[in-house]
Amino acid sequence: MQLGSASEGAGLSKWQEDKAKANRLAIARLTKSLPPVFPSAVLARALNCRFVPLTPRLAIDGYWRAHPLRADRLARALAARSGAPSDWRWQLTDDRSTGLPTTYRSPPAPYREQAHAKGAGFCCVCGQPVYRFGWHVDLWNAGVNKNASWHSACVIAWQFWNAPSGQTRLLRRLQGLRCRDSNRRLLRAAEVDHRVPLFQVWRQHRDLPWPELLGYWGLPNLQVINREIHVAKCATEARNRRAARSATVELA
Q1: What does the pLDDT look like over 93-144, one tens digit per residue?
Q2: Coil, strand, or helix at residue 191?
Q3: Contact 179, 226 (CB under 8 A)
């Protein structure tokens, strides 16, 4: 047992030495490739990472991955700056080639649709220009990045909107580990839920301005609740949907 422990300790020490050496080389490479102007918050995080990113672009991508809620707020703010095209309306289709969503569970994104896409250099999520390193502001006076069609922040926001359960741990902490519905302690099996169900957004709110619609996929409409409460909420929503369909059939 003692030999095994000593071997493990030596192995850990060697691993730490290798990591420190790799990080020194990474810092040197990152510093060499940095432009004169670079977002200070991104650089501070990169230099304090367990494994330092090798390039400025990786540093920016890592920053937004570490801050998905900031990415969510920024993407919605950029969308509000763009606004929707004048002739755009939220629609669903079975033809994926058009860029239109096939389900109401996907957030509406007019600039991902073929009819409204702005092309290279503009973000397909928010519609704003994309600059160097996928940043949303031209800090380098280099103009639009014609090789990009996503902001780094919008990539993370899009992932968050489509799969918020991937950020359950973060949302739990944000709620102080309390169930948003019952105010009891969140259990391990607690789940992420949309306060206003997305089917209800599609049925009742689809004509809202596009940037406002995005809030139903973002943080303002998300909560973490205990699983038994989530199951009961889903059952109630299913009954309401059946009742609404029956009423529609009777009126027809």
Answers
A1: 988 888 889 999 999 999 999 999 999 999 999 999 999 999 999 999 999 9
A2: strand
A3: yes
Helix 152-162 with 68-82: angle, nearest 10 deg: 100
| Residue 35 to residue 42: CA distance in whole angstroms | 13
Task: In whole angstroms, give the CA distance from residue 234 to residue 77.
Answer: 31
The answer to whether 125 and 157 are in contact (CB under 8 A) is yes
Query: Mind listing the pLDDT tens digit for each residue in 173-208?
Result: 999 999 999 999 999 999 999 999 999 999 999 999
Given pLDDT bands bounded at 50, 70 and 90, which one contains residue 20?
A: confident
- Tokens 């009961």 -> residue: 232
- Map residue 192 onto helix, strand or coil: strand
195-200 long-range contacts (CB < 8 A, ≥24 apart) are 195/221, 195/222, 195/223, 196/221, 197/237, 198/104, 198/105, 199/104, 199/237, 199/241, 200/237
> Can you tell me the distance from the alpha carbon of 192 to that of 172, in angstroms, rounded to the nearest whole number?
9
Work out whether strand 191-194 and strand 222-225 pair parallel, antiparallel, or are unpaired.
antiparallel
Residue 137's φ and ψ, nearest 5 degrees, are -130, 140
Tell me the domain boundaries of the chain.
Answer: 1-66, 67-251
Cβ-proximal residues to 75 (8 Å cutoff; 6+ apart), any chain: 125, 126, 151, 153, 154, 157, 158, 214
